[in-house]
Specification:
Blueprint (H helix, E strand, L loop, with lengths): L1 H7 L2 H30 L3 E4 L3 E2 L5 E9 L4 E3 L10 E14 L2 E12 L5 E4 L2 E5 L4 E5 L3 E5 L29 H50 L5 H23 L8 H7 L5 H14 L4 H29 L1
Parallel strand pairs: 2-10
Antiparallel strand pairs: 1-3, 3-6, 4-8, 5-6, 7-10, 8-9
Length: 319
Amino acid sequence: MRRNCWREIPVFLRKTVCLSFLVSALLSSWTSLAQKNARTFLPKGQFLQDSIQVGTPVQFSLSYHHNPSADIFFPDSSYNFAPFELVNRSYFPTNTQHDISVDSVVYTLVSFEVEPVQSFRLPVYIRTPQDCTSIWSPSDIIFFKNILPTTARPDTLHLQPDTTPYPMRQQANYPFVAAIFFALVIVGALIFWLFGKPIRRQISLFQFRRRYDEFQRIFQRLSRPTDDSNRRVENVEKALILWKKYIERLENKPFTTFTTKEILDNLKDTRLSDALREIDATIYGGNYSSKTLQSLAILQELAEGLYREHRQLLLENTL
């Protein structure tokens, strides 16, 4: 029966009814999709506190739901946050659920305005192939909290004292330290340029004298006579080796490997031959006597003479 009633309706009316249903369904779907997109893709910005004081930091949260494939950007430190000033910002990792990504950032702001109510909003930038589109969040307000009492007469205001000490973290003044360092380097370079040669000469003479004094101290200790005959011969041998090493460093020749004849060929001293022969007799024959002490004294005098000659050469070469 229903089919018969529908057939009795004229064709143009049936087409009109079907078209109306189709248009209504499309409009309903488009409106639902538009509402969903408007709810999903609109940035949300809000203060995390309800009041603010002058110079007191306040946090502003900005979040945005978007397509995971979209490239979005939040305002950074180059953005003008007037009437606020940016102190810090904290980004949070992207959270994606059900093909919707959420990005958020919390800005720490500070204001020096005294308006009773302060409004603020921020944009989110979406990069497209043509340009970069900005979408603004709805404005949010925050109330200014006055810490001074409200009076009718300005001259009756009483300042609120706050003498609580706040510990300050010690910080190094790196520019000042760097300036001092470079100043010392420049002064040191200038001093070395003006007095470098005399300073090097004095250092060389000091080291030269120190090595000679060390040789003298040890050589004299080994040259002292002792009651132990074996110890006396051993000390004479050590004194001879020490003397050869010192002369070797002065003359830059391998005296420690030279024979007695080679030593006599390199050091022209008439007393040296008898002194070395007497010392060899003491070492290899055990004949320790007063002549041994005289021979060691000759070696010491010869070392002192060579020291004075080389010291004079050092002075002449460094002038």
